[in-house]
Recover the amino acids of this structure.
């Protein structure tokens, strides 16, 4: 992993998956990447 990057572990993501919106046929962004990015920005 590159220095300064933040990424949630699979265990952390697994605990939050029930709260992610369900896909409805439209391609979605990887929820883990989007959430990790939001947390990274909040921690800056």
């Amino acid at each position: 992993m590159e220095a300064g990057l933040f990424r949630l572990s699979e265990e952390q993501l697994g605990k939050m998956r029930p709260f992610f919106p369900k896909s409805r046929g439209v391609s979605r962004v990887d929820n883990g990447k989007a959430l990790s990015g939001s947390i990274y920005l909040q921690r800056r």
